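Minutes, project check-in
Item: structure for the 493-residue chain
Input as provided by the requester:
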Amino acid sequence: MPYAQLSSISSRVEDIVSADAIAVGFVKSEEDGYELVGAIDAIASIEKFFDVDLIDEISFFQPAGKPGEILEIPVSQKATKADRVFVIGLGDQSTQSHRLAAASLGRKLRGKKINVSNLLATQSQDIRAHAISSVLGSYTWTLKSDAKTDQPTFNIVCKSEKIIDEATVIANAVCRARDLVHTPSNIKNPLWMAQQAQKIAKEGKLTIKVLAGKELAQFGGLRAVGNSSPKPGPRFIQISYSPKATGKKIPHIVLVGKGITFDTGGVSLKRPYDLMMAMKSDMAGASAVLNVVGALPELKPRVKVTALLMCAENALSGTSQRPSDVITHYGGTTVEVLDTDAEGRLVLADGLAYADAKLDPDYLLDIATLTGSATLGLGRQYGAMYTRDTKLASQLVAAGESSGDRLWHMPLIDDYQDSLESDIADFNHTADKGDYSAGSVTAALFLEKFTGKRKWVHLDVAGTARSESDAGESPKGGTGFGVRLLIDWIMSL
């Protein structure tokens, strides 16, 4: 499906009124009146051009002024085709309110071929966020045979084309990540994921390596999970962005993404069975890191970034791993498998160990729809972040606030380490030796054992990677969480 388009326009009234519609912002004042906000001079010109008093029109409806609240006011002038003004609540005028206002407008106009001049944001940060969220709000994905392909165009009043260009790249990266998540698993498998990565690599002139079959001999976790579905079998995908050499040392970031293209739970069958309906989204981590790297050739940060996509299908078959199996991960660590439905940490462990041994990263970060425990603790608004590096945690929290992909720094509690003990292997992988009721924490403690002494971060996005409703910036289904966050963090280094 196509995505909404963004462009920058001047504040000249001639440029603004050349669209089909115009969008302006308003807030409720302390005196229970209303104020227009945004590009005020341009708004005044619009009012004069159409001979309309927008405050008078707003006051008639008595809106609450919440971010995203929309009034549609008809206007008419023979000199232009513009026939309406969308007046949109901006709440407290924060960047988050700008996101919600933009998403609300995008959702109202999605599927429509309409050109809108947007005057809501004036500060660079707000303009960038507003532009991205306009596209995210208008996002659609469907396989219906009669699906419409029309999408709106948002002309943002902005002096800097660079801001709009960057917003376009980021918004499209999020949308592409959503596309991968929404794709059903009768189409999407590890081979298909590799093919998508190869397309992105070709477009961005990125380096890529795909391992399969006997090439995965050392990847015990990936094989244990993925060999349950022997056709096409698991894939290890490595895709890298490197800026042009300048002679200066640059940081190297390795991103490891969980890429389970469908999760039945394996022999420890997922129950109740309706939980499987959303399991095509269990590759959201891999989708996020792929599209982060895919966006970098256009953004051109002075950072080397390598994404590792650990792709497998956790299926039921005669070759499925069993509870009580012992597997050998990349690097030699042995793990006792107690629950095959905790497969994500098994494939991530291989990726983390490989990155530590072979890639020498300055930063090592994994992202995965890993545990229901993270969702129980934080809901669907914050991703769970685990790291012992408080400086790095602060950077990522800040990037989360600036991007809209918000994080909460969770503790790595060493008192829980004994839960990972095993009588027959180096570790068990589900922390069944103790009853700490801390499934997200103990999963992070397990992954940490494969990271060496790297600056490591684990993002558990089981709650944020998928939305249960069509609301805010997210459609029902895949959200693309992590793409904005990681791009903003990378660009800040």
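Outcome recorded: The chain has two domains: 5-159, 174-492.
No further action items on this chain.
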